[in-house]
Specification:
single chain; alpha+beta; 5-stranded antiparallel sheet; 26% helix
Length: 124
């Protein structure tokens, strides 16, 4: 069974699973995955997120996520939540993509034990 088949958006301990996945396994997931370091530099940007956002992963990787990739998320509801020591929170959110409102569900993950943190996106 593939890792992608075992991994769901709301799985407990999901950050630990994502941390161990290869790029190909991340790309096979049915939801968007943005992996960042604590300076918000994008480390990995999976194929699902690239497909839905319209942004190629090579244009996102290495960029500051909240400033250069997704300024729509640079606010109290999303970016500021990552100031907590640890985070595992899911919220419904609407952002404007090419001037069109897009409803999504975001799961913000920042495990206390790791230098990596994640923003997961399911698209409605």
């Amino acid at each position: 069974m593939l890792v992608a088949e075992l991994t769901s958006f709301d799985a407990p301990q999901l950050a630990a699973q994502l941390n161990c996945m290869s790029d190909a396994e991340l790309d096979a997931l049915p939801f968007g995955v943005i992996e960042m370091n604590h300076q918000f530099k994008v480390l990995r940007y999976n194929a699902t997120e690239s497909r839905y956002s319209g942004l190629a992963s090579d244009r996102a990787i290495g960029q500051h996520f909240f400033r250069d990739v997704a300024p729509w998320a640079n606010n109290r509801r999303v970016a500021k939540r990552y100031q907590l020591d640890s985070l595992d929170e899911t919220i419904d959110y609407t952002f404007s993509l090419h001037m069109k409102p897009m409803p999504v569900t975001l799961r913000m993950l920042k495990p206390a034990y790791n230098e990596r943190m994640y923003l997961l996106v399911t698209w409605s």
